[in-house]
Amino acid sequence: MIRLTLTLVLVIGILSSTSQSLRFEIQSAHTKCIAEDIKSNSMTVGKYNVVNPNDGHPLPESHKLTVRVTSAYGNSYHYADRVDSGQFAFTAAEAGDYMACFWAVDHSPQTTVTIDFDWRTGVQAKDWSNVAKKGSVDVMELELKKLYDTVSSIHQEMFYLRER
Predict the structure, then answer these.
(1) Could you tell me the strand order of the sheet in which 65-70 lies?
(2) What are 143-164's pLDDT values in tens digits?
(3) pTM of the full predicted structure?
C-alpha cells in the first residue's frame, strides 16, 4: 500500500511539473519540425512568436514564418503564412504524432530567426488561473481540482497504454 502511494505521488509530481517553452533558431529558407505524441480526444494548445533581435524596433520583414500543425494522418489543424506570432488550439481527433513545422522566409543575406514555442496537451493545456477566477474558488480547492484532473489523466493513460 505504501509503495502504491509513493508511486502515485511520484507520478503526480512528475506530471504536475511546470512546463517551459522551447526556444530554437531557424536559418532563412529552412524548416524545423517538432512532433508531439497526443492521444485521441486530448486538448492541445500552442503559442509561438518570433523573438525580436532589435528590442525597441519593429520586427524586420526577414523574420516571418509559415507554420503548419498536422496529424500523423496528414490532417491540417493550423496554418499561418508569413506571421511573427500565433496560437492554435484543438482537440485531437486521432491518436498519434502531431507535427508543428516552422518555415523561415527566404532572405538574402541569410538571417537567423529565433522562435519561442509553447505546446501543451492534456492537463497542462488547461488554463488554471482562469478556472480560479471564473469559479472564485480558494487556493486549496483549485489545487484539489488540479490533482483530480492529473489523476484522471493518469487513469486514462493507463487504459490507453493497455489498449496499445
Answers:
(1) 31-38, 96-104, 65-70, 76-83
(2) 778 888 888 889 988 988 888 8
(3) 0.67
